[in-house]
Write the structure tokens for this entry.
Amino acid sequence: MEAGMFKPLRNKAYRSLFGAQVFSDLGNWLDFIAIQVIVAYHWGLGEAAIASVIIVMGIPWVIIGPLASVFVDKLPKKTFMISCLSLRILFVAGLFFAPNLYVLLLFVFLKATVSALYDPARQSAIRHTVPEEELPEAVTLSQLSVNTMKIVGPALGGGMIALYGVKSPFVFEAAGFLIAILLLLTLPKIETEDNLLEPQKTSYFKELSEGINHIFSSRILKAAIILSSIAFFIIFLYDGLFIFVAQDLGFDQSEFGLLVSSVGFGSVVGALFLGRWTDWKHKPIHLMASASVISGLLILGIGTGVMGLFELPKMLWMAGAFLLGILASAEGVPYGYVLQSETPRKMMGRVSAAAMSLQTFSMLVAPAAGALLAKWIGVSGVLMGAGIATFFMGTITLIIRLKQTSGKAELNNFGS
């Protein structure tokens, strides 16, 4: 395959979009540690304060993003994304000067709100600039940026705090958003259906419901969003308990970072592999379901290890974490492709915002449920339950998809 997964980068519009996304994603994660350090160490606040930061960060993705997505679909994408990035610089300045938790929470909320509006616009811009045959590679590159910056951002943020002080990540974050703006200025005008057709007056709620109805009318898109949302819920059941998992497996404080990095590194390698080998695009749900089956067994294995039923060298636990990262990409990349390929261009903002709302809701509810379950059945019990649930979710989805596929094949044979 010529140029492989980097094919879409020959497209000037996508190159500008992707470059802006890299710096935008980096900016999103640079302040992740800085905010927690300020709240916990500088202000001496406890778990409730950290939880409030995470909840305030997630609420715009669940509520405001979907409600505003109708306007996102109609507005000029380039101007809108540049405006969002400009506002993010302003709100990062607010985080820098925040004197207490309440002011900090206000700017965390405002920054998350603009991020929740920027992402559907970016998804829509990809759909309008990349030809259909290059969508798998474009989505893979996008996923690669997200996964890489989840590792690089917090690590860089931690390094900056050590070198330049606790508020330095905010300065570099603002600089990243500024570079993203400069890259978007090189983006050619994106021609959308709304640019080309006469404007039609339709009600706000009708347009909002069109996006939601489209999800339920497309079997493959509905399956991908439901599968992805349930997977997010299960992952975040135990994600907050991961530090206790590491302790039970014998990892000390300095080694915990290695275990987390192994997952992140695996997700990057997985995305690179899927960008090279794109045959999965013919059966994306099959790949997502198969990844769920294998990762379910892996999580169950880690759970039994935490329970103390067997012991492994730390290198093997890290290898398991690395494999978990690869499998996460095998679920995330096909999901991104289905979202793009199964959604009409004019609805991209609405559909992606609705899907993100479901996923973020799962991510917000799950940690509290995981903490309650851990008190009741222990960390190992939560992991084993999550593993079993993931395995059965993947198995049931796979059986349903295989039956649907064989049913279609029989119908085609009958017709011929």
In short: Residues 195-199, 409-416 have pLDDT under 50 and may be disordered.
